[in-house]
Fold this protein.
Amino acid sequence: MDISIKEIMDCIVNPVKSQIILTIQKKGECTAKDILSSQNDIPQATLYRTLNRLVDGGILKIVAENKVRAVTEKVYALNESFLNVNQSIIEQNDGEAYFKLFTNFMIVLMKEFQNYAEKPSINIVKDVSGFSATPIYATGEEMIEIGNKFKEIIAPYQTRNTSVKGQNMRILATIITPPNDK
């Protein structure tokens, strides 16, 4: 099943979808009960509705169904095609598909930012919102090193710590532009 770029981008910026995907990615396979126990801020009805949408969209697959009393409990895993979509575009060196993926990424980000900016209760300083661009000089190897360090820094913040008061889901987006030839 081909997964649309729009569906992929929606998973990245939708807080509930991204929490579910991160939980399943971390554990490998999960039941809805497993997800609820680690992401207790997602209402049960929302979780089941979102799981169904993720399966319908080809993001998740059902890898097992276990009979628990009178109920069938589904076990979910990430679909390989979802995990490999970016890698496939890169391996094929498909500039057009890469640009479409980037364009959708920007559109979804802009929509999220617009939703925030239109809220009547906006407080840019208190909400710790911002954006910046910083030119750096680096080789390809140095960029990989920077990316690995960045992953290491943000890893502890990719799952919710329920013991930390005021911790809210945010979207941290990064863009690495191709080398400037000028």
